[in-house]
Design goal:
Keywords: Cell cycle, Cell division, Cell membrane, Membrane. The protein is an alpha+beta fold and about 450 residues long. About 40% of the residues lie in helices and about 25% in strands. The strands form 5 sheets. The chain has a 5-stranded mixed sheet with strand order 3-2-1-6-11. A 5-stranded mixed sheet has the order 14-13-12-17-18, sandwiched between helices. A 4-stranded antiparallel sheet has the order 7-10-8-9.
Length: about 450
């Protein structure tokens, strides 16, 4: 299969690593042609803490995906999360030298580049610069300034910041696993792309992605990302609590949570009991489901309250910022019984479980449309998007030598240099137009990794 037909998303999670191969069908929907999954051993709360184990897990997931899809994988778009991620609001402006020309891509690019120069705390780097609204000569609430006249171009930005070392460690793992880094994307943004509809983003919605090690939040309003946060708790702390509270091993605690766990203690009768086999001939343990759900309930309430605090910090209680579409829960942790009801009870907001089938082709495997794979599906979508950005500049560059061949025989040799010079000039511009601000970050990371060898 041709490399241009498919793209690969790699979700490096705390509990699992997923490599997903997808392509776009003729209706613009995404077909998943292969998924590889491996247990994630070297990642804690979304941050790599054991390079060797992470590399092995990545290789296993990629090999599985390759054998299912029947393709060889060389490049991946990777998701980044972890407790080191934070976001801030920033506004900036540029004064344009030429008033008589309309605002172009280059002006928007210059404005975004200016934000990249913000001074961060030591060891931090900007991952995403996401423009919200623009102002042109004081005229506010402009969604798309390109094509307008104006001298002063201003914008509000949502800036996502992360720890340089954590990002480089992920880059290192990808490179050591024999893969090329195609791009980096913030995981809450990837999940949001996979499970939210455009109407929800317009109306105002909070996406809560409950993973194993972290809970990611992304808030949209008027179709624009307004707030992102990563909370360093997820499904694993619930398992940990069950393990401690019931004095059992982790594997049993995880099974108990998945099979019998509920976030709402009132649901279980007092006489419902689960018997757990003892270790190596010891007596079996009996656990009441009511106690189990009390343990789960206490921790889930804590996670939801932290997320709700972030939603309030964004300003959900102001009329203008109200999230009309409420909350969408996704990620593996969202499959906990009665979680939807508990979230509605605590926040008073409409809630639904988000499945990543918004953009998937109709005949996709039902397993893939599970909330567990929301981030991976979002990363595949991003990878396909990056691919569309690429081909054009290369095509132009390829045409160049042909132009020279035609010119050489007919034109005076002295004039030859001038002709081709005009063509290369256009090539970079089409690149500028399509290059996302994140690509530069990825390029810098690639350079760093190459030099670190």
């Amino acid at each position: 299969m041709d490399q241009n037909n498919y793209a690969v998303g790699l979700d490096i999670g705390t509990t699992k690593i997923v490599a997903m191969v997808g392509r776009e069908n003729e209706f613009g929907k995404i077909e998943i042609i292969g998924v590889g999954k491996s247990k994630s051993l070297g990642v804690h709360r979304g941050v790599v803490n054991n390079i060797t184990q992470t590399i092995q897990s990545i290789q296993k997931a990629v090999q599985d995906a390759e054998s299912v899809a029947g393709v060889s994988i060389s490049e991946v778009v990777v998701g980044i999360a972890g407790q080191h991620i934070r976001s801030l609001q920033h506004s900036d402006y540029i004064t344009r030298p030429s008033f008589d020309e309309v605002i172009g891509n280059k002006d928007v690019e210059d404005l975004c580049n200016q934000v990249y120069k913000l001074v961060m705390l030591p060891g931090e780097e900007i991952i995403h610069v996401l423009p919200q609204e623009y102002k042109v000569d004081g005229q506010a609430e402009i969604k798309e300034p390109i094509g307008m006249y104006g001298g002063r171009l201003e914008a509000n930005f949502h800036v996502v910041v992360g720890q340089v070392s954590s990002i480089r460690n992920i880059g290192r793992c990808i490179k050591s696993a024999g893969l090329e880094l195609g791009g980096i994307n913030l995981e809450p943004l990837a999940s949001a792309n996979a499970v939210l509809s455009q109407e929800e983003k317009e109306a105002g919605v909070a996406l809560i992605d409950i993973g194993g090690g972290t809970t990611d939040l992304a808030i949209f309003k008027d179709g624009i990302i307004r707030h992102t946060a990563v909370i360093p708790f997820g499904g694993n702390v619930i398992t940990e609590d069950i393990k401690e509270g019931c004095s059992i091993i982790e594997k049993q605690a995880e099974l108990l949570k998945v099979k019998f766990g509920s976030a709402w203690p009132g649901e279980n009768k007092d006489n419902e009991i689960v018997s757990i086999p003892g270790l190596r001939g010891r007596e079996p343990k009996e656990i009441t489901l009511k106690n189990l759900s009390k343990i789960i309930h206490a921790r889930v309430v804590e996670i939801i309250e932290q997320v709700f605090m972030e939603i309030k910090n964004y300003g959900h209680e102001e009329q203008k910022r109200k999230l009309i579409a409420g909350i969408v829960l996704t990620g593996g942790g969202s499959q906990l019984k009665h979680l939807k009801q508990l979230v509605e009870y605590i926040t008073g907001m409409d809630t639904r479980i988000g499945y990543p089938n918004e953009h998937l082709a109709g005949d996709s495997d039902s397993d893939i449309a599970s909330p567990v794979y929301a981030t991976a599906v979002g990363l595949v979508m991003k990878a396909l998007e990056y691919q569309k950005m690429r081909p054009e500049p290369e095509e132009i560059i390829e045409e160049e030598p042909i132009v020279e061949q035609h010119i050489a025989p007919t034109i005076n040799p002295e004039e030859t240099p001038e002709e081709p010079e005009a063509t290369p000039e256009k090539a970079p511009e089409s690149k500028v137009q399509r290059k996302s601000f994140l690509d530069k970050f990825t390029d810098r990371l690639k350079d760093f990794l190459d030099n670190a060898e």
